[in-house]
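Quick check before the chapter quiz. The format below is the same one you will see on the exam, so make sure you can read both the input and the output lines.
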Amino acid sequence: MTSSPGRGDSVATRERTIAKPAETAERAEMRRLLREFNKTRDPRIRERLVELNSDLVHYIARRFANRGEPLEDIEQVGFLGLIQAIERFDPSLENEFSTFATPTIAGEIRRHFRDRSWAVRVPRRLQENLTKVNAATQQLQNELGRSPSVAEIGARVGLEPDQVLAAMEVAPAQHTISLDGPVGGGDEPLTLGDRLGLSDDNLERVEMQDVLEQVMAHLTPRERKILALRFVEQLPQTEVAKRLGISQMHVSRLQRAAVEHLRKEFGAEAPV
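Here is the expected output.
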């Protein structure tokens, strides 16, 4: 008859009688692939590791859903974090890969929201300071029953008053305003787009006037007069001839000579 273990048996002896759960085939494959990738950096092995850990990425990405970004985009960012974790993981430390990869994946997704959710890109330092300032402001409001001062906020988060103010100034960059949104009051409310300036067609005329003044300086007074009457007042040659007291043929000859002179001076870009 086999005797049962007595009270004097050691703890180690009793633990040896308990069967340890068998390691799953997928987990064993992952450990093997991580060791191989650490040695070879084979892209094919990395692809297999990404496939084996895809469920982890989907799980973490769902925690950040409903924040204004498509879930597919969040998952893509999560996979970037997974690849970084695979690249940096050291199998010799005997750590669980999922434990190592989870904060890396989540951190990459948080950076995505921090960097991409701003309407205007601002330095990361100011983004981080604004996050601290907003959290401290809410805490102090609950504690004090009033809006905290800049100095109180700075003391709570370890920032100088000017740093707190700088962070507050970038807060509007987090959101955009629709051009169709109403602004002001009155019987006929305006939109923000109504208040934006439009392109002025006269600006092109101003530039052309400046060019013409430079061009006309190269002509004789009579040539300038003829071109002004012909192309500014748009008079026919017969009327120009009457005003100048010369023949129409003379007007035609002077006009042609003036145009040729301008083309020699300014090439094909001559305005006449």
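If your answer matched, good. Confidence is low (pLDDT under 50) at residues 1-22, 268-272.
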